[in-house]
Structure formats: structure tokens, C-alpha cells
Amino acid sequence: MRDQINLTGISAIGFHGVFPEERKNGQNFIVDLKLNFDLALAGESDDLTKTINYASVAEATVEEITGEPVALIETLATRISKRLLQDFPLLDSIIVTVHKPQAPVSVNFSDISVSIERHR
């Protein structure tokens, strides 16, 4: 198994969607992240500079959620993955899951999400 830092349930209001109402009114988006990289040096040294600061990861993720609107949550997930791989050079790969629990769907559901995995 790979070393991993997980962030679950990062949420913010975004204005993403295909329909004009989604872009006007906004809705809650929730993001889960799996950050894959070698944690051995951080574990041995107890030094924050040898790992990825998950508070900074969470803040960057919220900036993407609240940033420029896109039509698809697939695009939002891709944008988040690119940003984090760019900003955090220790990352080997990342899994991003974007949840859209208030998606405009005409049937009852508890959540709609997409997950992508990207590698350096």
C-alpha cells in the first residue's frame, strides 16, 4: 500500500453546472482527496517541511471550488488535481472525488460524485 494523506469532506459553495440557475444560485460542493507520496522522511524526522501541509491543500481546494465556474464536475475535479500537483511537488499522484449532492436531478438520490486519479 502507498503512503497516503486523506482529506474528506472539504466543502464550499460553488457556481458550477450546466444550467443557468446553478450558475446564479450556487450550491454546496464537497471534495475528498487522497494524496499519494512517500511519508517515510516526515515520519522519521517529525518535520512539517518533509511532508505536505494538509491545511494548505484544503485552502487551495476551496479556492478551486469557489473559483471560476465550469459546467461539469469532471472539469472541477481535473482543475483541482492540476492545481495540487503543481503546488505540491512531493505529490506522486492524487485521487480527487467531487460530490454534488444538490445536483438538479428529477429522482431522489443521496449523492452524485465523480472520482479521478492523476499521476505526476
Chart the SSEs and their pairings:
Elements: E1 4-14, H1 20-25, E2 27-36, H2 40-45, H3 54-65, H4 73-87, E3 93-99, E4 113-119
Antiparallel strand pairs: 1-2, 2-3, 3-4
Helix pairs in contact: 3-4
Rg on CA atoms, Å: 15 Å
Q: What string, H for helix and E for strand, traces the elements in order? A: EHEHHHEE
Per DSSP E runs of 2 or more residues, the count of β-strands stands at 4
Average pLDDT rating: 96
**Unreliable runs, pLDDT <50, ≥5 residues?**
none
Helix fraction? 25-40%
Attribute tags:
29% strand, four-stranded antiparallel beta sheet, 120 residues, 32% helix, alpha+beta
What does this 3D model show about the protein?
The model has no long low-confidence stretch (mean pLDDT 96). This protein has helices at residues 20-25, 40-45, 54-65, 73-87, and strands at residues 4-14, 27-36, 93-99, 113-119. It is elongated, with a radius of gyration of 15 Å. Strands 1-2-3-4 form a 4-stranded antiparallel sheet. Helix 3 packs antiparallel against helix 4 (73-87). By secondary structure, it is an alpha+beta fold.
Task: Give a quick summary of the entry.
32% of the residues lie in helices and 29% in strands. It has a 4-stranded antiparallel sheet with strand order 1-2-3-4.
